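Thought: the user wants the 3D structure for the chain below. I'll pass the sequence to the structure tool as-is, report back what it returns, then summarize two notable features.
Action: structure_tool
Action Input:
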Amino acid sequence: MVRYAFALLAAPLTLAGLATQLASAQQPADSLSQVNAYIRAVKSMTADFTQTDSNGQTVTGKLTLKQPGKIRFQYQKNVPLLIVGDGKALTMIDYEVAQVQRWPIRNSPLGALLDPDRDLSKYGKVVPSGDPRILTVEARDPKRPEYGVITLIFQRNPTAPAGLEMYGWVALDSQNNRTSIRLTNHRYGVPVPESAFKWRDPRPKGPPSR
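Observation:
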């Protein structure tokens, strides 16, 4: 199950149905500003996700997001894995092997989504698209290549925040673990309790101190 998380927190665009739409036409110059506006406008969101890794394995689940920096990936029942961002760090909990891993949000490609104060124009670029309905942005920190790359895919939708609907993303980490996330059933501005970003520690507790 760990491979799912490393791929998620990990490229060329590979989402089915969108890869063939990338061509040579350039998006408007203000596209990065529009993506910045979207990230800042979405204070909370829930969505269903489908996650596919580089081997073609697919799992599903529910994403919950609350800015700044809080996110939860609740996987389907037969996947004993949970990923939670508490505003400072991302934690991966693998209940199958009672393992917990934690690292700063800024060290993950997902940092591009989870810090509304960051200016995407400083570390992102528009990937040309032949479809005016699709906006694709690749984000990476050139000074920190070990943080990985994330390619964000948006569909233009005048009724969505800042006129964009997040279709999903493709993430590539420093170990070349790649995954794609497809989002559906978006709900914006929903109330999200802080308890959504709590998790149960599966690691055995040591003997009581004397």
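Final Answer: Structure generated. Helices lie at 2-8, 31-41, 111-114. The first strand starts at residue 44 and ends at 53.
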